[in-house]
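Dear colleague,

Following up on yesterday's call, I've attached the two folding results inline so they're easy to grep. Please treat them as preliminary; we haven't cross-checked anything against experimental data yet. The first protein's sequence and structure tokens come first.
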Amino acid sequence: MSAIAATSEPTKIVFGTDGWRARVAADFTFDNVRRCARAVAEYVVGRGEQSKGVVIAYDRRFVSEDFAAAAAEVVLAHEIPVALAAEAVPTQMSSFEVVQRKSAAGIVITASHNPWTDNGFKVKSPTGAAASPEMLAAIEALLAADAGKPIPRRPLADAEAAGLLERFDPYAGYVKFIRPNVDLDRLAAADLSALVDPLYGSGAGWIPRLLAGGRIRVSEIHSERNPYFGGVNPEPIPPNVDDALAKLAGGGFDLGLFLDGDADRCGLADERGTFISTLQIYGLLMYYLVEHRGLRAPVVKTVNETSMAERLGERYGVPVYEVPVGFKYIGPKMIETGAMMGGEESGGFGFGMHLPERDGIFTDLMLLDLFVCERAAGRWPASKAIAHLHEIAGPSSYRRVDIHFDQAIYPALKVRLLAELPDRAPAALAGRPVVRTQPLSTNDGFKFFADDGSWLLVRFSGTEPLVRVYTEASSSAAVDANLVAGQRIVGDG
């Protein structure tokens, strides 16, 4: 066992809406990863849960496997058993392993859909959900208290020889875990042609493998490892999925299924190559659970999710709970309320029957099952099934714009704009008067409501130096007008 001294000026590490993310070799360094791992280990030790162990996984980003190994060395030095992924796996596989092993915590090296220059450090709670704000606050406090102290390490080979380190492949266990809740055999037997785009991420190969051996035809693009992600952010939205949309528009496919860089988020397109917004996906999934599965448990949505949830909830008698942005809020609320589903605008969905955490692969399978059910009901092709959703849940047009700022000025700009935004509030949205301004409970933005139920949300990102402007309205023309209003009130800072 050995120890290394920390740098004289430690980086201030703060966990945002989904872990800590930073630029590789700038702030995201081996030393800082080890600091985060030590804080998690000390959190586990402080709770007397060393024997439960910690699960560690990683994605396909630049040297993610080496960052994961560095984290494992630190956790092992605290006499905590570690289950380390044998290769890059989807983030939700760590959640699954934490639940199956009844582990004290999980660590995932990933920056999800951030730019290829970044990497990140996520923490999972014993439930498999994202670490709660309380858990992260405790870890951040340990980070601050330990700044500058030497970090203990234990070589992996030494720990493996002592029986403290296990390398795992989650595939077989995951298949066994999901079979009670999704009929893989029925999906594999469907006479459908699906195009899958994992955006070079760690979800590559999973959907074709899960559905192999049947009638369904699954074609996958962008399957190879490419830490550059083809030059796009690995978030499953246009323009990042434009290659897939063009292939779908060319004909020969019934639908497109997408994944983000670590496969915990999903995306969808119909047979014509029309991209289906993540808000529409929320509506489709909620409709599927109540209409085709007959479920009536609550649902959880973030403040930037669709108003279709409330309309569907009223129609089917389903309670709808709203929480701040981030699965660190969604997961705990799902557990608290016994929710059947939770979702966020960025394409992450969790299910009570599965995990209270995002799983893009499971979600894509659920969407596929929805379309199999809708086809049996005579609503086909996919575009017709989606049109049916809007017949019962109302119209929904949505778009988001990200306004980027220089990292050096972002913190001060954020403080100033948050103070000024109420006075900059638009008087109208697409010609409809604004009737209410709602500050977000996390103090990172404001939501403006028009009298027809349309809304505009201005929110400061917790993981990148940017301001996000979101809007949902009844038409694309209204969405365009609302985005102009949103960008005007943010301006250039």
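Below is the second protein, in the same order (sequence, then structure):
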Amino acid sequence: MIRTFIPLIVFLAAFAFSGQGQNIIIHEETIVAQMMDKYEEINTEKTFVDGWRIQLLATTDRQRMESEKRNLQYRYPSVTVNWVHSSPYYKLRAGAFISKLEALRLKYILSQDYSGIYLVKDDKIKKEELLDSL
């Protein structure tokens, strides 16, 4: 098995070192350059991203929601916590993740203390919140 990898490694090493000292020049069409500039401009202006959160509570009692929020922040200080008001409900949500898999990890951790929690899709996640997530 090692005999098959040695020629492959020698070939890759020779390929990697053969291009040293040479400059690569890329010629792109002006329309492609303009489209890439526009793409960059649009994405730097965008302040929200689509992602996932864990919903812990939906209640009509704002005081209960705020109490649960304080409790969650005390128990899990590194977890982003926010709430939304969708009349008549106050919804308490935790975390801010791009991928569903990352959100499932936090859901598992929180399920030790909270029952009936589930993942929700959110299109109003600030980019800064993603850095604070577990």
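For the second protein, one point worth flagging: The radius of gyration is 24 Å.

Best wishes,
A.L.
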